[in-house]
Specification:
Blueprint lengths: L5 H17 L6 E2 L5 E2 L5 E7 L6 H18 L3 E7 L7 E5 L2 E5 L1
Length: about 100
């Protein structure tokens, strides 16, 4: 489990509020018990999505909001998606114009 400092924790909650306010139903659910940290120090925030595959609109929205939070706080977040009906239970991130799986 990743331990966040006070600034990261506040920034994470700000990011989650921004995504929730901008999302349309059904709203994605963040699983803050499964945060991880990438090799570059970014905090990876997994979201459960009720779908067969990851959502590109959510990925683009989350990237914009994460960039906004980064500019405000200096904290970097990456939103990962876990589609509920993915038969292989994979976790995805959108980057470089394509979906990538993350461990």
């Amino acid at each position: 489990m990743v331990v966040l400092d006070r600034l990261e924790n506040e920034a994470l909650h700000h990011l989650l509020r921004l995504i929730d306010e901008a999302s349309s139903p059904p709203r994605p659910r963040a699983d803050v018990t499964r945060l991880s940290r990438g090799m570059d120090g970014h905090v990876i925030v997994p979201f459960a999505v009720d779908a067969d595959e990851p959502s590109l609109p959510l990925a683009l929205l989350a990237a914009r909001k994460a960039e906004q939070v980064h500019k405000q706080t200096g904290c970097r977040f990456i939103v990962a998606q876990q589609p509920s009906r993915d038969p292989e239970q994979r976790t995805y991130v959108w980057g470089e114009g394509r979906w990538e799986t993350v461990p």
